[in-house]
Amino acid sequence: MKLVIAITQDEDTANLVSKLTEEGFRVTKLASTGGFLKSGNTTLLIGVDDDKVEDLVKVIEKVCRPREVTTPATPMSLVEDVYMPYTYNIKVGGATIFILDVDRYERI
Q1: Residue 32 in domain
Q2: How many domains does the chain have?
Q3: Closest by Cα among 7, 5, 32, 28 to 17
Q4: Mean pLDDT, to the nearest integer, of 44-64?
Q5: Is residue 73 part of a domain?
Q6: Were 64 and a residue from 40, 78, 88, 95 both cysteine, which residue would form a disulfide, CB within 3.0 to 4.6 Å?
Q7: Closest among 39, 32, 43 to 7, alpha carbons compared
């Protein structure tokens, strides 16, 4: 048995949880916050048999697609009292997945 920890963006979470439950996976959802953009994300804990890990990863890959967004940056001062706002593109979405061995599992 494996414990899969999947960290996803909040906007992908509802679709992912729905798809995972449709496919028969049990999911525990935890709210979390990302470090770089301080954006909301969700950590999912999923216990899965060894032979179902690849099926699980495929579902996550299908739902949590990376995408680019334009983000405003802190305005940069060029000369006194004149600010030049600028934006930059960053990649968001996707998922970070950890797959851990489970020594013991009990459901009470």
Answers
A1: yes
A2: 1
A3: 28
A4: 96
A5: no
A6: 95
A7: 43
